[in-house]
Amino acid sequence: MAKRFRPVDRDQQFLLPVDMREWLPGDHVVWVLLEVVDHLDLSGLEKRYSLGGVGRRAYDPRMMLSC
Description:
It is built from four helices and two strands; from the N terminus they run βαααβα. By secondary structure, the chain is mainly alpha-helical.
């Protein structure tokens, strides 16, 4: 089982584009989606993960819902 979630860094620099905010306009629907996902109660999903076990870290459910 997963030890913990993989980190999500939305400010991570990419090779191309340098910054996601430069790639997408400020009024793009993805910004609304990210805001909605940040306000969701995902405690039910998070409980299903066995943290502290062996194996690779799982992806954060917030990241998986907003990709």
